[in-house]
Design brief:
globular, 15% strand, 38% helix, single chain
């Protein structure tokens, strides 16, 4: 599948940071397991959507995928997935899970609610705004609205991953909408876009409605200037949470490093000075300080991995990184040939029952084994209650009421008893 460097899926980076294209140049965008799973889900949706069938009724239990970027698949191993790499081609046999079928059907059911002029995995062009610009939209449909005297275009993006993506102000959707507007306005008088995201793993379907004129203005006033800025000899760096999170070059981008290092200190500088009523000791983090740290430190974990990846690559290229050395990672012992090992042990007098731990298959494996309408598992499956954790206010999960811990309850009880004794 062809991809455009400044395509819709990259616009959250490219539009916000003019230098991102320069920073990423030369990096290999290695395929990740979650990305390959998403590609497989989209392929299944494309086949079932165009054939007008349910994913649960799709007979094959595997998808055959082909890619023309062998370099990006180097070192990739996924249990149950067969990956064959040649000099110029990658062939992948990807198993279709029941979860994937359910997710695709949720997406397709939503798509089929929006008229008959429908298009799956259709390439659209926004070359009037960026030379050669194009993208491939998951789904869009047109319905005429007599009150508006024009067509409403419903554009749906299918997200099968675990990371939640909000629909409002989504640059990827705006990029697709701009492409639809340019590519199809000769046939449809588009007056409005209903931009949607379907995310099965978050049980989330949401819509952001924008006028066609808004999309056109966004292309002229935001997208085109952002592309022009990226073409400068010295494009401007604009590090930030959204644009840098998936940037391939963030591990050695100095402006991003400075932004990260300043971020925590800036949080503290913005805090009010504690007054005499502060209940915490001066050398103990206050509630405000803890909150500021929680907002900052989450980004450091992924950044640390990327920095170490860059450092290793440079050291492998004969660079000397002060204070660092290359070592072999710690691994666990594995059995090279379980069948031969079992035969040897049984030959030496050990019983087969003593060689194996018999356990049930996983829930997913059992669900895949039984018929789709089999209900015999339901009464034995439950989801344990999760432990209490903190999350940013932007997290979609419902906030819980804070409770005192047993330790504080014990202190309160002790203080109350001491007060009673003193009063007596």
């Amino acid at each position: 599948m062809k991809h455009f460097d400044f395509g819709p899926s990259a616009m959250h980076r490219k539009v916000r940071c003019a230098a991102s294209s320069k920073v990423e140049r030369g990096y290999v965008n290695y395929e990740r397991p979650e990305a390959l799973e998403g590609t497989a889900a989209h392929d299944l949706a494309d086949v079932c959507g165009n054939d007008q069938i349910k994913a649960k009724d799709y007979v094959p239990d595997k998808l055959e995928l082909e890619f023309d970027n062998p370099k990006e698949f180097e070192g990739l191993e996924i249990p149950g997935v067969v990956i064959k790499i040649t000099d110029d081609l990658v062939r992948v046999t990807y198993p279709i899970s029941d979860e994937m079928r359910r997710g695709v059907d949720l997406f397709l059911d939503e798509c089929r609610c929006h008229g008959t002029d429908i298009y799956f995995e259709e390439q659209v062009s926004f070359s009037d705004y960026i030379p050669g610009g194009f993208g491939t939209a998951d789904f869009f449909a047109f319905v005429f609205d007599p009150e508006l005297n024009g067509y409403i275009c419903t554009l749906i993006d299918f997200k099968f991953g675990h990371i939640f993506v909000p629909v409002e102000n989504n640059y990827q959707l705006l990029g697709y909408a701009l492409g639809v507007l340019q590519t199809w306005s000769w046939l449809y008088n588009i007056v409005r876009f209903d931009l949607m995201i379907v995310q099965p793993r978050h049980n989330y379907i949401d819509t952001w409605t924008v006028e066609a004129h808004y999309v056109q203005c966004w292309g002229e006033d935001v997208l085109t200037p952002a592309w022009e800025a990226s073409q400068q000899i010295q494009p401007e760096y604009s590090p930030g949470d959204i644009q840098c999170r998936y940037c391939l070059g963030r591990g050695e981008c100095k402006p991003y490093a400075m932004w990260m290092l300043v971020k925590v200190r800036k949080r503290f500088d913005e805090l009010p000075v504690n007054d005499e009523s502060e209940v915490f000791e001066p050398d103990i983090l206050s509630d405000e300080e803890l909150g500021q740290l929680c907002q900052s430190l989450g980004h450091f974990a992924t950044w640390e991995l990327k920095v170490k990846e860059i450092a290793l690559a440079r050291m492998e290229d004969q660079h000397e990184i002060p204070g660092q050395k290359i070592v072999i990672s710690i691994t666990r012992r594995k059995i090279s040939d379980p069948v031969k090992m079992e035969k040897q042990l049984r030959k030496d007098g050990y019983k087969k029952a003593d060689l194996y731990n018999q356990t049930l298959k996983t829930i997913t494996q059992l669900e895949k084994m039984v018929d789709a309408d089999y209900e015999g598992l339901d009464e034995f499956i439950y989801k344990p209650e999760g432990r209490r954790v903190i999350a940013p206010l932007s997290d979609r999960r419902k906030a819980l009421v804070a409770i005192k811990s047993d330790v504080f309850d014990a202190f309160d009880a002790s203080d109350e008893e001491e007060t009673k004794t003193t009063n007596q």
